[in-house]
Amino acid sequence: MDSFIHFDAVSKSFGTMKVVDGLDFHVGRGEFVSLLGPSGSGKTTLLMMLAGFETPTSGAIHVDGVRVERLPPYKRNMGVVFQSYALFPHMTIAENIAFPLKMRGMGRAERESRVTRALDLVRLGELKARRPAQLSGGQQQRIALARSLVYEPKVVLMDEPLSALDKQLREHMQLEIRELHRTLGLTVIFVTHDQGEALTMSDRVAVLNRGKIEQLDTPSGLYDHPRTRFVAEFIGETNLLEGTLRAHADGLAQVELAQGRVVACRTGAPPAAAGERVMVSVRPERLRLGSDPGAANALPVRIEDDVYHGDHVRLHLDCGGQRLVARTDRRDEARPVGSDAIAGFAPEDCTLVLP
Ligand SMILES: Nc1ncnc2c1ncn2[C@@H]1O[C@H](COP(=O)(O)OP(=O)(O)OP(=O)(O)O)[C@@H](O)[C@H]1O
């Protein structure tokens, strides 16, 4: 991956509060990267520093080899789309889209051809004489998208652009944005707090927590190999078993759980040294129920509850006082509530994270 956008030790404080803390990461040309994290984790601040509406307190931002963190927004050639569409109500759609071009002194003929092209991209050419109030929310958001694309930026920054739309429209717009990303070869940085949206749309996702990136990885990398407890719990759902790392050899870690049982976990370099505390993260669909207490990674459990979800059943398990969740196929053998069983998982199906 070539480095197209590079954050080099970027921090941002408001007064004494550090809201972005030493960010170091690269984004490749043409990549779609989402910023995902809880409210207040610094996603918007990161995006605003890239757009030029905020200046870092320290550190450097490079875009296509140019240092940009002190450049004003209009010199960065980035398209920006916000949650609120921010269209001018007194202008027609065509005038709204032409506005940034007019501000840059572009001639009328060139402006018109670019507006037509941008409207064609979002398939709303027939609405160009209307005013924003005469459009639906989804149409207004597509116009805002067209406006961000009109000066053919190489980077498009989007801050929760779909969160005001209903579910169906949101899913439709997700597909449209992905399609535009692919066909135009755009580099997209997309802020969302919807993990489903981040996982389905992105090449990679940066999980932010308290101003730091906990993990920047592909969607499957985050789900299957979370590196921290925060990521394991934030992305999807997981079971966390506390224990002590006893040994690591040949790619297999041995972890002694609180109740004295030892489980094996296939992993590269473990996150802790032998003797230190770790957590074993096992996704609910990786927990298998059986009856062989001698099986590998076997935990005796009692079935506390079963909840039918149509395509699957969720079992709530009690494992020596700890609550676990298993997701089973409807066709699996039925397990009556109150019965005992053995919950097991393969060493390949778990991950070690720091507590
Ligand atoms: N101009 C400002 N002055 C003071 N504090 C600010 C300013 N802008 C943001 N903050 C604070 O910085 C922190 C990070 O805010 P930011 O908007 O980047 O978070 P976020 O992850 O985008 O959150 P959300 O999902 O709620 O939009 C928050 O605690 C916020 O209150």
From TrEMBL:
Q: Say which domain of life the source belongs to.
A: Bacteria
- Cite the entry's keywords alphabetically: ATP-binding, Cell membrane, Membrane, Nucleotide-binding, Translocase, Transport
Task: State one molecular function term (GO).
Answer: ATP binding
What is the catalytic activity of this protein?
Answer: ATP + H2O + polyamine-[polyamine-binding protein]Side 1 = ADP + phosphate + polyamineSide 2 + [polyamine-binding protein]Side 1
Keyword field contains Translocase: yes
In this protein, which residues make up the domain named ABC transporter? Answer: 5-235
List, alphabetically, the Pfam families matched: ABC_tran (PF00005), TOBE_2 (PF08402)
Q: What is its EC number?
A: 7.6.2.11
Alphabetized SMART domains for the sequence:
AAA
Purpose of the protein: Part of the ABC transporter complex PotABCD involved in spermidine/putrescine import. Responsible for energy coupling to the transport system.
PANTHER family in the record: SPERMIDINE/PUTRESCINE IMPORT ATP-BINDING PROTEIN POTA (PTHR42781), SPERMIDINE_PUTRESCINE IMPORT ATP-BINDING PROTEIN POTA (PTHR42781:SF6)
Q: Which NCBIfam families match?
A: potA (TIGR01187)
The similarity annotation says: Belongs to the ABC transporter superfamily. Spermidine/putrescine importer (TC 3.A.1.11.1) family.
Subunit notes for this chain?
The complex is composed of two ATP-binding proteins (PotA), two transmembrane proteins (PotB and PotC) and a solute-binding protein (PotD).
Give the protein's recorded name.
Spermidine/putrescine import ATP-binding protein PotA
Q: Which organism is it from?
A: Labrys monachus
Provide the organism lineage as a comma list.
Bacteria, Pseudomonadati, Pseudomonadota, Alphaproteobacteria, Hyphomicrobiales
